[in-house]
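Illustration: Amino acid permease.
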Amino acid sequence: MLKLQKTLTLPQLVLFGLAYMTPIIVLGTFGILAIITEGSVPGAYLIALVAMLFTAHSYGRMAAACPTAGSAYGYVRHAINDKLGFFAGWAILLDYLFLPMVIWLIGAAYLASAFPAIPQAVWLLAFIGVTTVINIIGLKMASAINALLMVAQFLVLVAFVGLTLHYIGSDGSRPFWSLAPFLGEQGATMSTLMAGAAVACYSFLGFDAVTTLTEETRDARRTVPKAILLITLIGGLIFVAVSYFVQLAHPGARFDNTDAAAIEIARNIGGDIFVSLFMIGLVVGQFASGIAAQASGGRLIYAMGRDDVLPRQLLGQLGRFNTPVAALCFSALVALLALGLDVTTSTSFINFGAFLAFSLVNAAVVFHYFIRERRRDGHGVLFYLIFPLLGMMATLWLLSSLDKTAVLLGSTWLLAGMLWLVWLTKGFRQPTPAMRFNTEE
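Result:
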């Protein structure tokens, strides 16, 4: 019988998690966040970082208690019950289904801004088609392409920050250190910062992706929790630092095109030549992220089909290249919804599922450690009650800060999950189907 080999180390996990988060996304969504926060993007990222650190701590604690690849689904099922576990998995499915859509939508928006003669829909369809073909052919090809594209986006990100620093220094009228980027030129309110943080958390999606590699990690009970916290902290500091200098170079929130604001800033700091280089970096970054997101989403859809949580005959089969062709094509079909959505609504919609799953994982820590194992000394009260409750309150607050359309769409998704669970369990008379997260197939 085949078994997963435990070969991954802490540095490898951290690099995987940072690559999945796609640091260049801080530029891709800068204009949207600047409008929401009234010119205080780094302030929103700082709030998001603090909130995500509490949740990352809870993910780490549950990864140590339940070292399997099921992530939020496995943790909640293990600590609370199978039905809440199903809803945690259903919420995560929302992220995996729609994350590729948002990634491709952002890339298409920038390409449409650079080449206005070509409709955005054409770029979107190109992203979907090429990425789907690559993933159908197989993960080896996808991984090789992804590695090259990740190097390109990191180089562009470094160049963007370097030119921003040069632009600020050559201006002479702007100090390098100021609270204005965190608070806005006119003074941002807590409600605007929280609304911005609710969208900024999109950039953190994927910090928990390393939990899917638990069964392939050496000393997983120690390594995975450390990796989760390091990925969240390092990624968050990158987002805060980059957005700080960009906001310092471009105060306020006035752009010709909000969805492609970074092009305007790139032109100001580096001229037309750098705009071309930046576009290449951003597009390849989005392309690389889209490959990883669709591959992960396709695998989750396939796992749910194989285990009869979703229709087995339709989604639980492997294709000619030993890849989940039907699941990948289903992900591509879902992405076509981007033709009728904007970036802000799409991003908020995804965050609805993430915040719900994060809240349940925080609750799982309390149930497992504080209630079941009775870890109630000073250390236990702090780490297994106060921290997870703070994480739960932060994520629920962020959820309540999402726009009304996102909450409506997310609530509809939950209702669909409830109806599907009722059907699967014959009105709760049968056990909730259990998902296996192996990769032998």
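Reading the tokens back as a structure: The chain has a mean pLDDT of 80.
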